[in-house]
Design a protein that fits this description.
The chain has 339 residues and is of the alpha/beta class. It has helices spanning 54-58, 133-145, 162-173, 186-194, 209-216, 230-239, 269-272, 289-302, 318-326; strands at 8-14, 27-33, 41-50, 79-86, 96-99, 106-110, 115-116, 153-156, 178-183, 200-203, 221-226, 240-248, 276-279, 309-313, 333-337. Strands 3, 4, 5, 6, 7, 14 and 15 form a seven-stranded mixed β-sheet that branches. It is globular, with a radius of gyration of 21 Å.
């Protein structure tokens, strides 16, 4: 065990279930006491925590693939930090770990739910993004779920986000014939082409997605990686070639909708084109983790794979950062730094 421990920790609680867009009064930043960790547990000073689109679903009291956040309890999510007290074998004070108890300054974590990470291999925040859940989502969604093969033309929506920007680059590194991305600002479109090496990109706010996609991919697409849903999915179904595959990863366009959102009106095309549309959850692909880290760490080391981060300083900015993510204010992975 280590010497003097902090006596309290600030943590974000969900205090009301949001209806539509989350509001500040649905959340509270509260103080909680900190105690020495019990048997098999560690105390972690969080250095970064992640905000992710899936968290919006956990704010609703509905049965889903992951349980909803409890009211008046600290929220959860990916975090990386330094161990300041340990009552567990194999993890020492000073080690850095990745775990699932974010949204707070100090976390009392069961050691079996923590993974040691190496700050010399990559910056710690990268373990929440390019080398973490978002990177694995991109890797598994493209190579496993969408069965990507060399020569495929790939379209990615939400392409400047943490997952999308990785999907496009990974496709290029593995020999895609063409990679097209959509994003919500001209600045992001420029970034996709100039920084991330996409062959074409467009701002979905500048005109109908279907028309802009047809122009960017005149020969159609073979793979669609969907982070958005809605109009993008409909456009992709129109542009997919025979035996095209779509990975349905996220539908951020409708997470805050209070009315049912219209589905793609062209689903009948799935039959004639023999399309495969498959949903994915990153948790199903844990077995790929070692292969993923090895391959992606090598791409990072060689400079072939670039990644963006939007880092916001201070735990008090937690809610605002999450809201910014839902509005698309991030480029790449959105994280809160606790410095």
């Amino acid at each position: 065990m280590s010497a003097a421990l902090p006596t309290s920790s600030r943590e974000w609680h969900l205090v009301a279930r949001p209806h539509g867009w989350p509001k500040a009064e649905d959340f509270a930043l509260r103080e909680a006491p900190v105690a020495a960790p019990g048997e098999g547990r560690i105390l972690v000073r969080n250095l970064y925590f992640s905000v992710d689109p899936y968290m919006r679903g956990r704010m609703n009291d509905v049965k889903s693939y992951t349980p909803p956040f409890k009211l008046d309890h600290p929220m959860e999510g990916g975090a990386v930090g330094e161990v300041i007290a340990s009552n567990a074998e194999g993890i020492a004070v000073g080690d850095h770990v990745l775990h699932g108890l974010g949204w707070r300054e100090y976390a009392d974590v069961p050691a079996r739910h923590a993974v040691k990470v190496d700050p010399d291999l990559a910056p710690l925040s990268a373990y929440l993004g390019v080398l973490g859940m978002t990177g694995l989502t991109a890797y598994a969604g493209l190579f496993d779920v969408a069965s990507f093969k060399e020569g495929d033309a790939v379209f990615v929506s939400g392409a400047a986000g943490a997952v999308g920007s990785q999907v496009g680059q990974m496709a290029k590194l593995k020999g895609a014939s063409r990679v097209i991305g959509s994003a919500g600002s001209d600045e992001k479109v420029k970034l996709l082409v100039e920084e991330y090496g996409f062959d074409a990109a467009f701002n979905y706010k500048n005109g109908p997605v279907a028309e802009q996609l047809r122009e960017a991919a005149p020969d159609g697409i073979d793979v669609y990686f969907d982070n958005v849903g809605g109009e993008h999915l409909e456009a992709a179904i129109s542009s997919l070639n025979v035996r095209g595959r779509a990975t349905i990863c996220g539908m951020i366009a409708q997470y805050n909708a209070t009315e049912p959102t219209p589905g793609p009106r062209n689903l009948a095309l799935v039959i004639g084109k023999r399309l495969r549309l498959q949903g994915m959850l990153v948790g199903d692909h844990a077995a790929l983790q070692p292969q993923f880290v090895q391959e992606v760490a090598a791409w990072l080391a060689s400079g072939e794979l670039k990644y963006g981060e939007t880092v916001v300083e201070g735990i008090e900015k937690g809610f605002d950062t999450f809201l910014g993510l839902m509005r698309g204010e991030n480029t790449g992975k959105m994280v809160v730094s606790l410095g």
